[in-house]
Amino acid sequence: MFIVMVAAECAPVAKVGGLADVVFGLSREIEIRGHHVEIVLPKYDCMDYGQIWGLCVSYRDLWVPWFGGSVHCTVYFGFVHGRKCFFIEPHGSENFFNRGAFYGFADEPMRFAFFTKAALEFLFKSGKRPDVIHTHDWQTGLAPVLLYEIYKYHGMQDVRCCHTIHNFRHQGLSGQDVLFATGLGRPDYYMSPDRLRDDTHHASVNFTRAGIVYSNFVTTVSRHHAWEVRHTDFGNGLAHVLHVHQNKFGGIVNGLDYDYWNPDTDPWVARNYNASHLEPKYENKRALRERFWLRDGYKPIIAYVGRLDSQKGVHLIRHALYWALGNGCQFVLLGASPDGAIDHQFWELKRQLNDHPDCHLELRFDEHLAHLVYAGSDFVIVPSLYEPCGLTQLIGLRYGTVPIVRRVGGLADTVFDVAQYNGQGNGYSFDGIDPGSLESALVRAVGLWNHHPREFRKLIQTGMSQDFSWNRAGQDYVNIYEYIRHK
Predict the structure, then answer these.
(1) Calpha distance 29→484 (Å, rounded)
(2) Are 30 and 56 in contact (CB under 8 A)?
(3) What pTM did the predictor assign?
(4) What does the domain layout of the chain look like in residue ranges?
(5) Quick one: which of 121, 118, 131 has its CA closest to 41?
(6) Nearest CA to 448 among 471, 470, 462, 427?
(7) Which residues are CB-neighbours of 444 under 8 A, at least 6 positions away?
(8) What are the per-10-residue average pLDDT scores of the chain (487 residues)?
(9) Rounded to an integer, what distance in angstroms lies between the CA atom of residue 285 and that of residue 373?
(10) I want to staple 160 with a disulfide (CB 3.0 to 4.6 A). Which of 259, 298, 321, 484 is the partner?
(11) Is 335 helix (H, G, I), strand (E, B) or coil?
(12) How many other C-beta atoms are found inside a 10 Å radius of the C-beta of residue 257?
């Protein structure tokens, strides 16, 4: 099959979050299975151009219809760690992708509506006819609309579309002018409640809704989250349209890049190790203590790695820190907050605890340092209020660092509590959002570490032996592609 990924991000060249890792990892896995994959991205000025090999002009004069006129674009081609990537650079006065940042602008919907239109126009004009276009998140939600309302009448009638929603909080709302900009027009037609109209803001086009209604198949990033968004508030207003289209909706757990995240070959840890040779993990623990100026001693280290925002359960992260210090543990944190209030809160914590020998808060994000934190810690906490998939717990399992998670979204699909799975458990989970619920899991986890070291070692090895690579997810997506291309 020939698959084209259309997305706003791809690691490591244009990465803000997990979306970038998924686009890269899934593309590679599908290629490994013998299929041809190409990725179409915006050509941001702030990309990491050092990660692109052989960047050159592929299509010099792409004129993209826009608001009754057209915008001149150049399309570049380059390899990103072996992936075939096309980068679209518009030359219009709007300056869509030369702004020094990937996101954060008032005209965000128009920026990505233009990119989506340009991606379809590029496929059309260059003669590319993929079996499946795989689009990602709200930024590319209009692609299946454009495909089935415009481009299928120009020789692309056999192309199918799979749309993946990584985050239901961000849906992409725009005024009806986007319909005229992209050549769709006909607001009376598209603004009906069974098409693009947002269920709450009736004058707005909802890009995510567009992807759900028009795609041949819609996925989200874990099975449990697929249930949550249809039956709880996690759908953020899209539960009804998901129910209407439930026969083409499902959840597939994201994979983890097992080459990049591999304690046996990782260049950023103090000593390499694996499930059958665990002793060097404890040298990483010593190295982590030295790096963060923690005292040496017979204590477990509990870690938090990641963004500090309301979604991640910051009140529970704070509680875990104080619980750890009061119960014979050490606590380390690596992460930053985009929220000013939360950022201030954690800097205050850091000032208060700066000289504490059992605690270190590193209030920034450093990808290489994260590898040492995972390798050197005994536990990693993920107390998220919601978590569509999550990679933190998967990295923890890979590095023999036992996850303690709230049982939501992808966390429920990947962490199996030792109390419920009769020797097949790989971590600890809890349900509530109150400190008591978190404590119940912490008490059990640290109790095993303190009193049953052999069982704790077995728990580590169980987690390390499980496969959460892209292997299974890759096959699931190939099955979906085969299914929709024959519909």
Answers:
(1) 19
(2) no
(3) 0.93
(4) 2-255+471-485, 280-468
(5) 118
(6) 427
(7) 418, 419, 428
(8) 98 91 96 97 97 97 96 98 97 93 95 98 97 98 98 96 95 96 95 92 95 98 96 94 96 94 97 96 97 96 95 96 98 94 96 96 93 98 96 97 97 94 88 97 97 96 96 96 92
(9) 8
(10) 484
(11) coil
(12) 20
Q: For the structural domain made of 280-468, what CATH number should be given?
A: 3.40.50.2000
Q: How far apart are CA 358 and CA 69, in angstroms?
A: 63
| Exposure of 474 in the CB half-sphere (CA atoms within 13 A) | 22
Query: For residue 183, what are the contacts with CB-CB under 8 A and spacing of at least 6?
Result: 65, 117, 146, 150
DSSP conformation letters of 156-202: -TT-EEEEEES-TT---EE-THHHHHTT---HHHHTSTTTTB-SSST
User: Is 138 within 8 Å of 150 (Cβ atoms)?
Assistant: no
3-state secondary structure of 65: strand
Biggest alpha carbon–alpha carbon distance for the chain: 72
Indicate the pairing of strand 301-305 with strand 69-80: unpaired
Task: Provide the residue type at 111 as one letter.
Answer: R
- Rounded distance between C-alpha atoms, residue 353 and residue 337, angstroms: 18
The DSSP call for residue 247 is G
b/e string for 210-228 if b means 16 or more Cβ within 10 A? bbbbbbbbbbbbbbbbbeb
3-state DSSP call for residue 382? Answer: strand
- What CATH number was assigned to the domain covering residues 2-255+471-485? 3.40.50.2000
Helix spans in 43-168 (H): 108-126, 143-149
430 within 8 A of 438, measured Cβ to Cβ: yes
